[in-house]
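User: Structure please.
Assistant: Input sequence and predicted structure:
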Amino acid sequence: MRAQVLRFTTVAMITAAASSTMLPAAVAQSAADGCPNGYSLIAVADLGPNYQVPGRVDDPTSGILSFGRAGNGDGFVCAVQLGNRTTPWGGPIYNFWDNTLRA
């Protein structure tokens, strides 16, 4: 299971970077929003139709776990840019988790 999460995180980072160069402004920054410190709560719909990874992270039937739980299907995910890392074409790389972290 851990290998699946690591593989997905790698794929998520690459797919996310290929789809967008910027994330919308953060809605909230506390554990009360289900995100760990430093992550921004964002709406999956705000990322556009080509941004597939956040939707899969949020989907409760995808088999992807965030903090040991399946996505909650509420249309929101947590995102953080991974430093100044970029793809070969210059886009930033992000990490996504579902907003299921308990306060």
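The radius of gyration is 13 Å.
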